[in-house]
């Protein structure tokens, strides 16, 4: 549950001059994050997603709140690397600054399927699409990090990372739907969330001037389970009875990670709500730097054409 001591209205600093990009910013946690950040007058927030109609609702909500923040929609489908590349190019054509990249979008517990590029759907969407966006935006983030200025990458993961397959990431089956006889949707999801956690840590090692962390938002009532079977949805809601957060409160951890002072956050670490360092919960696989390095190399090769 959220730390009752964290209040985004009071604890988020003035964000004047900051440029922020939020994936999945048109609904759920991403929209809630955009609203929290706009309340502190960020210069410009870009929200990506697949629905311009949903985006316009968030743009209007922020505008009508009296916020000084400019909000722009960037169309992007993370399940298509061509779409991600086009979104990145559209963003870069509009600005030379990026201070905070929030990799928020994601899908949960989906039936067996592939992305448009032939990768397992959840891994391709939750990890690979974001990885391409990160690669495209790194030069802007590095520029923001110069001369002591702050630049951050906040990647949403989930405590379901612990349901990863044996070995963590099944590299030789990432171009299949990865059928499992039991718990397939959650094992595939856990694999993608483990990748998010590992990638943030490897980013921090290779680009230490940028703060890169992974965050678990808690159990949040969003539509991320759309497409999941009835039994899956019923099981999740039954297990989380009394603990489901609204998107407004569920966004606290990622908003904290994006804005807290550098003295209060450790590069490459994994955080649970709100701002609670959770490295001790990682199993041997999640702690393996060799696996993080292998994921980086595999990702580099997969994205080479883009």
TrEMBL record:
Membrane in keyword set: no
Cross-referenced SUPFAM superfamilies: NAD(P)-binding Rossmann-fold domains
Keyword annotations: NADP, Oxidoreductase
Family matches, as Pfam families: adh_short
Molecular function terms from GO: oxidoreductase activity
Signal sequence, start to end: none
Family statement: Belongs to the short-chain dehydrogenases/reductases (SDR) family.
The protein's name: Oxidoreductase
């Amino acid at each position: 549950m959220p730390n009752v001591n964290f209040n985004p209205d009071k604890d988020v600093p003035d964000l004047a001059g900051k440029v922020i990009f939020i994936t999945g910013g048109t609904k759920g946690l991403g929209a809630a994050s955009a609203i929290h950040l706009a309340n502190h007058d960020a210069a410009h927030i870009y929200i990506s997603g697949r629905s311009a109609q949903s985006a316009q609702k968030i743009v209007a909500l922020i505008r009508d709140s009296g916020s000084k923040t400019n909000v722009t929609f960037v169309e992007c489908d993370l399940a298509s690397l061509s779409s991600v590349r086009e979104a990145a190019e559209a963003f870069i054509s509009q600005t030379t600054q990026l201070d905070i990249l929030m990799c928020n979008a994601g899908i949960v517990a989906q039936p067996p399927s592939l992305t448009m590029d032939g990768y397992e759907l959840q891994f391709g969407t939750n990890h690979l699409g974001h990885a391409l966006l990160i690669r495209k935006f790194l030069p802007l983030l590095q520029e923001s990090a110069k001369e002591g200025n702050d630049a951050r990458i906040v990647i949403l993961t989930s405590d379901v990372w612990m349901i990863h397959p044996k070995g963590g990431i099944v590299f030789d089956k990432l171009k299949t739907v990865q059928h499992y006889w039991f718990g397939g949707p959650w094992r595939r999801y856990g694999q993608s969330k483990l990748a998010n956690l590992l990638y943030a840590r490897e980013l921090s090692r290779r680009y230490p001037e940028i703060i890169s962390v992974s965050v678990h938002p808690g159990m949040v009532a969003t539509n991320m389970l759309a497409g999941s079977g009835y039994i899956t949805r019923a099981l999740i809601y039954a297990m989380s009875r009394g603990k489901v957060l609204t998107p407004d409160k569920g966004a606290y951890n990622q908003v904290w990670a994006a804005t807290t002072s550098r003295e209060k956050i450790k590069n490459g670490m994994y955080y649970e709500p709100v701002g609670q360092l959770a490295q001790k919960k990682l199993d041997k696989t999640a702690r393996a730097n060799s696996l993080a390095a292998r994921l980086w190399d595999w990702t580099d090769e997969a994205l080479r054409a883009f």
